[in-house]
User: What shape does this take?
Amino acid sequence: MSPAAGPAAGVARGVGRTALLVAAARAIETHRPDALARDPFAEHFVRAAAASAGWPVRPAQVPGGDADPLWGRLGRYFALRTRVLDDHLLRSAHLGIRQVVLLGAGLDCRAYRLDWPPGCVVYEVDTAEMLAFKQTVLDRLRATPATERRTLAADLRDDWAGALTAAGFDPAEPTAWLAEGLLLYLPAAAERRLIATIDRLSAVDSTLAYEIKDLVESPQVRSSPVYTTTRHRIGIDLLALFAIEPRPDSAAELARQGWTVTIRTPYDFTRRHGRGPLPEPNDALAANRWIFAAASRDARRPVPTPRGMAPG
Assistant: This one.
């Protein structure tokens, strides 16, 4: 597939470029014999954008294999995150939730590649450029979603609730929300608005999963190979893209609003699945936390485990 112009331009810069990075990681993982997650569409997005057309999409193309800081260590992180969040969404769906909202859906194809129960509707919310590029590639592949899919172009830093309900979303029904790799890039005020909007639109039994970094990283961590290799080799300066102001404690806020909240580290799931990144000195992944929340039937819930501590 030759690189696409037009919509691909918006994907190739800024935060949009990170969607190509994650797609390449998913493509590499897809071709591993012991893959944690499989996304047969991922490599087509990578090849369709000129910015990423030369990136690896198979394990044999990764220099240094799993020891490579970019496609090995960071790539394994994205693969593990994909598997864990896939499991979270499918668990929610099999418990009866039929509305799924992917905030900052990027180039993932969960509406196409997961085995959804009958009656599920997957809403993909992202920028118009991202959705247009994604659709161009999917149309070339003549891909058909496995469940009903509705796309919504919106800036998640602003008010997007009205557009979501206009697209058919019903706030009276429970929802499985996902913000994968999103909050890291949002200003603090935008994160507060996003979490407040999710809370306002969530019926009892709704679920939410998202990712944060829970502390400011030291200069030693900021100069670690994961960050420097990503910047030098593929031109993505993750540290420059991350919001630098003090972050709100959204997990605690959700708990105050009556959600049951669990905070995990990626390494919890490395141990569970037997694959994924492991801790290392000056670790660029050590501050990452995956938050899982459920809208409880009780009016209030206690504050979750303090940030930086993973429940056992």
